[in-house]
Amino acid sequence: MQAIQVTKAPKVRSVLTALALVVAPGVAVLGTAGTAHAATKISHATATSMFRQSGITWSSSGGCSNRNNPTCTSFEQLNLASAQGAQTLKQASGCALNITGGTETGHASGTYSHWNGYKLDYSKYACVGNYIKNTFTYIGPRGDGALQWRSGSGNIYADEGNHWDVTYYNCGGC
What we know:
alpha+beta, globular
């Protein structure tokens, strides 16, 4: 009997990543050397349509959606997975959900930031807070002291006092 050689995953992953870059322009491939995650960016109009269909509201202190104005709430360049994550939270919790922060300037920087489409801020409603605290795993305080919970899918929910700051690494099981 002859032995069968198995191709190692990193080689396959490299080829798939290269193909994704060629085949899917407009899709950014992000991740560390061992993993690659495609982040599909969506427009403000697409996000608001998705939120409207799910019964999710949004508000801004400036009453605007300009990504370059920190008093606005913008969804321009939001990751599709983040928008889907909001829909998943709304559907799973059954709670009212109001988004107060999106991809607009004025938030902390970093790879998994608001600006890069990974984060959304939500109004602090008792229903949402109870759902997060009773459903997800408490993982301790963040560097700035905000208490954090991790969902089963790995998304992080941080209680920033007057709102929830959520980092979406994926759609939360959509």
